[in-house]
Amino acid sequence: xxxxxxxxxxxxxxxxxxxxxxxxxxxxxxxxxxxxxxxxxxxxxxxxxxxxxxxxxxxxxxxxxxxxxxxxxxxxxxxxxxxxxxxxxxxxxxxxxxxxxxxxxxxxxxxxxxxxxxxxxxxxxxxxxxxxxxxxxxxxxxxxxxxxxxxxxxxxxxxxxxxxxxxxxxxxxxxxxxxxxxxxxxxxxxxxxxxxxxxxxxxxxxxxxxxxxxxxxxxxxxxxxxxxxxxxxxxxxxxxxxxxxxxxxxxx
Length: 252
Hints:
This protein folds into 2 domains: 1-167, no CATH class; 171-252, no CATH class. By secondary structure, the protein is mostly helical. Helix 1 (8-34) crosses helix 4. Residues 244-252 have low confidence and may be disordered. The chain has helices at 8-34, 37-44, 46-51, 65-81, 83-94, 100-103, 106-140, 152-169, 172-181, 187-192, 194-208, 213-237, 242-246.
């Protein structure tokens, strides 16, 4: 059975404690990563540097832009490193409301969430970034009369937004798994609403990416594929209804 319901004030205190632990882990990781911020930026800027025309390079517009850019990249890298602790605290907060047999998913949840987010950012950085930035820069400099001069801060803002979007999309199977385990959705419902998922995929792509067809499709296509994976996950791991448990698998 789920744990005994706690008073609202105790829930707030528990939430505050876990938020402090998560924030503390991020702060420690941020301080550690800030020392390598310049090298981290060099690494994350590789796709756009390769796409820039010969003689062009990243620039900074204001005197403080490099400082705040390195500060931001240290914060982002710190958040990625602290992700296991953050997910563990998230699980610890929701676990009291779960049944005993559901709590055994704690370690798999943390591991799978971090893995899926990491795979999403890797997919975006390695396979999508080179094509996106090559297309956008060639489109902007197509006439030959305009020079590409991208700012450090502008590039980091766009790239971090895209990486977060890919990481978020790759969390979809994890979200479906837990919704199915709690009985909120089942694979019948997911399959029936597939057309709405397709629409949501392209709306999400339009919101989270630059206004070009390729980058929007690069978000929408993994979303659609992972939604289909989520249907199978819900089918095999979702909460069974009494009628479904009695029916033999062959009858289905």
